[in-house]
Amino acid sequence: MSTKLFQRKSRKIGLPPGSLVYTGEKRIEKPRITLMDYQEDHFEEREIDSVDECIQNLKSGSVTWINIDGLHQVEL
Question: What is the pTM assigned to this prediction?
Fold first, then answer.
């Protein structure tokens, strides 16, 4: 058995339970945020630039789905 297996430390050690830590390969591309808003007679899908813009586009009486592709930027 390799000793490297036991030498690797997790970046999660010491953080509160449920803390988000991206452990995959380093990625530089910008995450993609897609907002889908729908109700019985209406459907709208579009890309947006920020989470704040998602909040501004919430409409009462409809269902809003916010999809984020690119969880490597945990801050988002």
Answer: 0.56
